[in-house]
Predict the 3D structure of the following.
Amino acid sequence: MQRDKWRDIRAEIERDIMDGVLQPGTKLPTEPELTVAYGAGRHTVRRAVAELAKDGFLSVEQGRGTFVQPHTLLEYTIGARTRLRQNLGAQGVDVSGESLGVERMSASKRIAANLQIEEGAPVVATSRLTHADGVPVSFGTLYHDAARFPDFPERRQAMGSVSAVYKSYGIPDYLRGSTQMHARPARAAEAQQLRQHPDMPVIVVRAVDTLPDDTPISFSQVIWSAARVKFTIPRSED
């Protein structure tokens, strides 16, 4: 029926994306152009585009237009040794990061409990945005005990990787102590940061990394785009 025409338009655009006719990064025609191309009203076209954006096929960017998103979910393995660049780099993904700021603050109850320090003790918080092949996939904050890692952000900036920074502190190896994940609707600022549709959910990952003797060295909270990543938890790791 005419009232369901948006479904037909959605299916046609999705088919073009899956068949490679529309490649990731391609900018869709404007809304008026789409109404002419599909012989439909603006509301019909708008709904078809919105539904595709909800499912992660399109990214609607204010002031820039609508772009085709990479439709293959990245696979992120959470194991005993969870490393961002190894996870995504092994899939041929170009991983890059962008600093969102550094804050020196007093540990909240949650941060203190996860780092096993006193509530109110000084911590250093490093926030970053992560891109995979130029597309934002996550952003979050890494917390460290300032007494132990006073210049962690500066070393991270100079060395480029968390593992390298830990080695400079005399820590050759570290393990994933715990991981908690839950999905929820994205807040407006989160959707904007990740350049995803406001109705697309996010996955919140809270984690503690430890020394081999289980001493915590970091606590992190990262917001991941649910449209761009899937998590795998292996049974065991050698």
About this structure: The chain has a mean pLDDT of 89.
